[in-house]
Amino acid sequence: MQKIALMGQIHEDGLKILNDSKFNVIEINDYSYDNLIKELANVDAIAIRTAELKQEVLQECKSLKIVSRHGVGYDNVDLNYLNKEKIALAITGSSNAVTVAEHVMAMFLNLCKLSKTSDQIVRSGQFAKKVSMQKDMLELYKKNIFIIGFGRIGKILAKRCIGFESNVLVYDPYIESNIIKENNCIPVSFDEGIKIADFISLHLPINKNTKYLITKKELSQMKKTCILVNTARGGIINEDDLVWALQNQVIHSAGLDVFEQEPPKEKNPLFALDNLILSPHSAAL
User: Fold this and answer.
1) Do the Cβ atoms of 146 and 197 come closer than 8 Å?
2) What pLDDT was estimated at residue 78?
3) Mean of the pLDDT values across residues 174-199?
4) Exposure b/e, 246-260, CB count within 10 A at least 16 = b
5) Do 69 and 88 contact (CB within 8 A), yes or no?
């Protein structure tokens, strides 16, 4: 009987399929090195969510044939080791693309309509304070929405932005410009996009080329009314630089679903900012 390890909960329907197929399924909740070495030593397959699978653990998995990642990214798995040992890696493709795109739209709308502030002034009996909010409230209508990364999520997000009659600008060095145009979007360079964008959404993996893609330099080139959202990976935006930009009104606001350290530290300076919406890496749920 083949043995499958689940590192993180999966939907009960998925668990039922595995059990009905007569696999020996074990669920792992302790991700310490010693426990992983013990539990994964003779598994045939591993289904993983956000936990890490490093080489020092993988090299002890002598029966491993496949790792299945519950999501699209795979930066929490040692891909080089899997390739070297010819161990298959599966991802869930487009399964969560729609919900991530919707999460971005929710952040765009909440930030440009000041939903968090609006709720607070009503609850605190400061109804008349709405007058002072007017200068900071924005629309998506006819605005430039810059999508960085035009994979499944980027394309689905673009459709929703077009529905708001926005101008959708796209930068993706791996996608031909004619494909971007076929999706009713406008191909632009990275440098051009960040300068003219009213809204920016990131949809790319974290690697040596994208680590700190957005720093003080790029933030300083953005419009003061720009809204920046990251539902991709923590570390694409330099968090210290983002704190600086939001504290000094260099940009309008930001939305983060991902962080350089997850979960973030208790006293993370991001938590003190009012022009920021946070979610716990839940955009794909």
Assistant:
1) yes
2) 92
3) 98
4) beeebbbbbbbbbbb
5) no
The answer to the question of residue 283 being in a domain is: no
Look at residue 156 and give its three-state secondary structure.
Answer: helix
The percent of residues above 70 in pLDDT, for the chain, comes to 100
Query: In 137-250, which residue ranges form alpha helices assigned H by DSSP?
Result: 152-163, 177-182, 190-196, 216-221, 239-247
CA-CA distances (angstroms) from residue 43 to 16, 63, 92, 193, 259?
Answer: 19, 6, 21, 47, 31
**In this structure, are 243 and 180 located in the same domain?**
yes
Residues 122 and 242 in one domain: yes
pLDDT at position 245 is 98
pLDDT in tens, 226-274: 999 999 999 999 999 999 999 999 999 999 999 999 999 999 999 999 9
Catalytic residues: 233, 262, 281
Q: What percent of the chain has pLDDT over 90?
A: 88
235 and 187 within one domain: yes
With H, G, I as helix, E, B as strand and everything else as coil, classify residue 26.
Answer: strand
Is residue 9 predicted with pLDDT exceeding 90? no
- For residues 269 and 275, what is the distance between their CA atoms, to the nearest angstrom? 13
Indicate whether 284 belongs to any domain. Answer: no
Q: What is the DSSP letter of 243?
A: H
Angle at 203 between CA 199 and CA 209, to 5 degrees: 110
The residue segments making up the domain with residue 75 are 3-90
Task: State residue 1's pLDDT score.
Answer: 84
Measured distance CA(198)–CA(51) in Å, rounded: 35
pTM exceeding the 0.85 threshold for the entire prediction? no
DSSP β-bridge partners for residue 228? 200, 254
In 3D space, the residue among 176, 220, 230 whose CA is nearest the CA of residue 199 turns out to be 230
